[in-house]
Amino acid sequence: MTSDLDQCAMRAQSHTAGWRCWSFKVNISMSIPGVTLYERIGGAEAVAGMVDRFYMKVIADPNLRPYFDHAALDKLQHMQVEFFSAALDGPIRYTGRPVIHAHHGLGITRQHFQLFVEHLFETLADYPLSEQDRYEIISRINTYSDDVLGSGSGPVE
Q1: pTM of the model as a whole
Q2: What's the domain count of the chain?
């Protein structure tokens, strides 16, 4: 019996343009003019699946888990789906607090942020995304590092 990951790998080898992995459609495409990163990776369903898998890794990390011990995980996950969707040029608007305010006073260090990004990179590697799309996602999330670490200027109000 093959796992979902094995099935996805077999399909990837056949160069299928769009197929199901982990119960959501993933679209494999290069940068096409007029197509957003959000659309290239599979839209709402794909982002929700990736965020779910990503947060399983983050919460399992003993160095990061304490930051989530008292968090309402359902709400956090909903906000992260919004955040990632907006960051990837999706049609979903982020309705959460500004990143700098949401992370203020948590004592997040650069090492913690790096672990967070490493888990994101590992998660993205689980999906049949182009290397360019993976690095573009990481790059967009990295633009928030100063706000997460408390050294950014935050939103202009």
Answers
A1: 0.74
A2: 1
Whether residue 155 lies inside any domain: the answer is: no
pLDDT at 151: 79
Residue for token pair 């699946």 = 49
The residue among 7, 129, 108, 18 whose CA lies nearest residue 58 is 108
Across the chain, which has 157 residues, the per-10-residue mean pLDDT values are 38 33 40 82 95 95 94 93 96 94 92 96 94 95 92 55
Residue with tokens 């839209």: 43
In a domain, 82, yes or no: yes
CB 67 within 8 A of CB 58: no
Distance CA 25, CA 47 (A): 10
**Residue 7: helix, strand or coil by DSSP?**
helix
Q: Is 59 helix (H, G, I), strand (E, B) or coil?
A: helix
Residue 157 lies in a domain: no
CATH number, residue 106: 1.10.490.10
- Write out the residue range of the structural domain in which residue 33 sits: 4-149
